[in-house]
Amino acid sequence: MKTANIRNFAIIAHIDHGKSTLADRIMEQTETVSERELSAQLLDSMEVEQAHGVTVKSRSVRNFYHGDDGQEYEYNLIDTPGHVDFSYEVSKSLAATDGAILLVDATQGVQAQTIANLRLAVKHKLTIIPVINKIDSASADIAATEAQLRALRPEFKDTEILKISAKTGQNVHQVLEAIYQRIPAPAEGNDQALKALVFDSQYDPYQGIIAEIRLIAGQLQAGQKLLLMNENSTFTAQTVGIYRPNMQAVKTLKTGEVGYLVTGLKDINAIQVGETITDFEHPTQEALPNFQPPQSMVYAGLYPKEGTSYEALKQAISKLALNDAAFHYTPEQSEALDAGFRCGFLGIFHLQIIQERLHDEYNVEVLTTAPNATYHVYLKEPDARKEYLTITNPAKFPDFAKIDYVTESYVKAVITTPNDYLGAVMKLCEQHFGEMVDLDNQQELVTLTYKLPVSEIAYNFFNSLKSITHGYATLDTEFLDFELVDVVKIQIQINYAPVDALDILVPRQNAAQIAHKLVEKLKYTVPRRLYPMPVQAIVENKAIARVDVPPLRKNAAVNGEKRSISKKQQLLRRQSLNKRQAARSDIKLPQSVFDAVLNLDSEN
Fold first, then answer.
1. Residue 373: pLDDT above 70?
2. Is 18 assigned a ligand-binding role in the annotation?
3. Residues 350-366: what's their mean pLDDT?
4. Quick one: which of 38, 134, 270, 489 is 20 to 30 A from 162 by CA?
5. What is the enclosing helix (H) or strand (E) of 548?
6. From the candidate CATH numbers 3.30.300.20, 3.40.50.1980, 2.60.40.1740, 3.30.70.240, the one assigned to the domain spanning 375-485
7. 134 among annotated binding-site residues
8. Pick from 227-231, 459-463, 554-558: least confident
9. Where are the alpha helices (DSSP H) in 139-272?
10. Domain 3-182 carries which CATH code?
11. How far is it, in rounded angstroms, from Cα 437 to Cα 512?
């Protein structure tokens, strides 16, 4: 295929605006898959994607289209997620494309994530084709949606906006024609030195790392000795191929094409997303600009459940990290849960997806601790051996007597919402210690910019935002800096034994309220025993909240009209024994106990 006839593009949209359905129609009308092979959301192959109805991982597929001008074109479609937690996946996909289809639901109009993804496309300087979907719906308001679209960008005012139904296939042919007419072909470069961008990767136990690549210049074929420019290491290409949408080996990948490269490398850290691959014998002079590494927004501990080995969890997590560049992990040790990992996520939904992928793809069951933000702790002299301690695990928070001051990570949160919900959104941000930076009206939508502490948006902020705006708002966050905060650590003791996995960091002014709510929830989630067990919340060596977990049976020593002195004494002896054995407590905590901490923000 001539480079002039290649088109690389993505589809960007708000969640549930029909992006995956349009991808299905494109593959159907280009005969990439037969009618027998076609199924709904064909590119959403993971179980978690089908279960949640959202795209989590970007996927590429090559289509061949015979245009009305009589020429054949190669369409490389790179699918993108729509959820706010996976904007990094969108950014990676757009880096490998030359244009994007901006899809908007005619029944809902321009939504917040539409604007967030549009900003990413503009940032990558892509040609954008605006398209209105679901025009066959009875509740479609095509005129209003078109007016909203034209107001988004100056160039949209004179651009033809296509109107389609991805579900029925109506006018999808116009989209296929617009792709080769409007989106530019890749720059010529077959005679130049090989330069390929790794925009995604996955691990195969037999073939090693499989890199998804876009060729910027040159040619690539199996058996070629290659150089990783950032890592400065070499390997030999085992196989090169394309997705249609299943893997299909080819002899050569040429300039502008998108495909995959089987590296044979078994070290999961050998290739990073954003890597530049070139020929070892005739290397290119300059590597491509590397991707900005994603900033983890929340951290949580992942520990193997009973029946799952630490090694199995370690292998599964390392392979997931290769497939998801936004997922980070480091080993850690908990007194209550033994060996596990402290993991960084882009948000709560990202955490949930990782949990489900570990279960579905690797058959690994995990316990997940409550998410938390990043803190910098500055110590008093003579404990201040270095500038500050970076704390991502509350259990590692130093004793309060050693702390000089603490700073917390803050983000710039850009919230786009319909005007009707402006007051509710502002109230929500104020409740979470937000500081307004900017407010911008755009017809029926308003964009709010707030400075927010990460700890306040780590738990339930996005769900609350969706709830008060009925799903019509988006949250786009960007790391700002660290600012001074007054936080304390709430330590939980169960049956007088500290459970470090339940430690949380909270603002001092909220500590008492949160502690009482937490111990009350633990009262009903901690597994019962034959005797009462105290659950205490400790702040700065003082117990500020306590409840007793009820026993499995009634206590004969304190019930009934006749009270037995001997039975009371026997109970006291058992309780005294419990205290002496607290240091080696063998209480097994289920996930519901950690969920009690996670869901604190969701209840009044």
1. yes
2. yes
3. 84
4. 38
5. strand 542-549
6. 3.30.70.240
7. yes
8. 554-558
9. 142-152, 172-182
10. 3.40.50.300
11. 31
- Please report, to the nearest 10 degrees, the dihedral formed by the alpha carbons of residues 594, 301, 410, 428 taken in order: -20
Q: 545 is written with which tokens?
A: 């909240």
Is 17 annotated as ligand-binding?
A: yes
Whether 132 has a pLDDT exceeding 90, the answer reads: yes
Given pLDDT bands bounded at 50, 70 and 90, which one contains residue 55? Answer: very low
Give residue 160's identity as a one-letter amino acid code. Answer: E
Is 169 known as a binding-site position? no
pLDDT for the residue 51:
47
- Average pLDDT in the 564-584 region? 63
Give the whole-angstrom CA distance, residue 220 versus residue 448: 47
* DSSP letters for 73-101: EEEEEE----SGGGHHHHHHHHHT-SEEE
| Residue 92 annotated in ligand binding | no
How far apart, in whole angstroms, are the C-alpha atoms of residue 582 and residue 461?
36
Look up the CATH architecture of domain 488-602: 2-Layer Sandwich (3.30)
Homologous superfamily (CATH) of 195-279 is Translation factors (2.40.30.10)
Number of H helices, E strands in the chain: 14, 31
What's the rounded mean pLDDT across residues 432-459?
84
Percentage of residues of the chain with pLDDT beyond 70: 83
Determine how β-strand 6-13 pairs with β-strand 99-105: parallel
CA angle (285 as vertex; 281, 290 as ends), nearest 5: 110
Please provide the distance, in angstroms rounded to a whole number, between the alpha carbons at the two ends of the chain.
Answer: 61
Top-confidence residue, 91 or 423: 423
Measure the CA–CA gap between 206 and 249, rounded to whole angstroms: 16
Q: Give the Cβ contact number of residue 334 at 10 Å.
A: 19
Q: Look at residue 42 in the predicted model and tell me its pLDDT.
A: 54
Q: Is residue 562 part of an annotated ligand binding site?
A: no
20 labeled binding residue:
yes
User: Does the structure show a pLDDT above 70 at 81?
Assistant: no
195 φ, ψ (degrees, to nearest 5): -145, 110
Q: Are 319 and 308 in contact (CB under 8 A)?
A: no
State mean pLDDT over 431-449.
Answer: 85
pLDDT class for 50, splitting at 50, 70, 90? very low
